[in-house]
Amino acid sequence: MSQCETEKPTTVASSRWTYLENMTENVIIIPGSCEIINMLKERSFDTGEATLNYAEGPDSGPPLVMLHGLTDCWQFFLPIIPQLSQRWHIYAVDFRGHGGSSRSPPYRYIDHINDATAFLENVPEETPIVYGASLGGMISLMVAARCPDLVRALIFGDANIKIGKVRNVMRDYHTFWSGWERIAGLDATIKELVTEVAEMPIEIPWRPPGRYGDGLDYIAILNKATYLSRLDPAVLTDWARGGSDDEAYRRVTTGYDEETVSKIACPVLLMQGNMDKGAILEDDEVEYALSKIPGARHVYIEEHGHNLGLYAWDTDRLLQAVNIFLESFR
Fold this sequence. Notes:
single chain, alpha/beta, Rossmann fold, 2 domains, two-stranded antiparallel sheet
């Protein structure tokens, strides 16, 4: 039995028929190309430990699975889904505790790794390319290392690769994690959440101390408030404490082993943002990954920080890199 098989939850639905029987759907229409109706259907998949909400696009080509970052949800990828769905079969997944997925603690890396592994084993009909952003990038690395047969290629969007860097992010962005944990736990209207997000005190490396909303317009603040309204605050409990609490840090990072990236056999596109604008993937991590993963290549997106333009819906450079990489597999 392979490592992949031994580490997945034993209660995962093993047959595609079970998956189809338990599927629910919600139809969403996104404006897009005149040549294709970009229709997404929200469905659910039961891993046996959590119920994952995901959006599925039309069957326009090979499968592309998209995994978002911490505190976000599948809608993080909305700026690029209409274009990508013209040639790829999109599956955009909510991690447990995020978006429409079940609130099913714990929220350790290993839990997200197991959830993603179960999804990849049971839902796409052929081996997908995986695009992981931030937390989704780290989870994707581990899945590709543990279960190489499940990942055809990997797009990695500005995340840490060395686990010690995660501790730095916990410390440097503590005001994010603690503030967002508090806001996500509020029983409040979206209007009230917008105010809370705008007024949230922050002290982070690349901006002067102040409020989260400083320099941001209403739409940018509404976007974050909407994500937080769909988040289990318990997702952030250990993130808010992990900078100074060794046990909280160990709980969060359980299951992540940077040494295993050398087992990744598929091509990997490493997309790095500008640290002066909030990116977290550091140069030494890029060098480490390039030395460990034979199929890894790197692109630097200087125009944007950690979200590579997705929060701002300014995605020309991102789409250029992603599309060119994807087209090499058609």
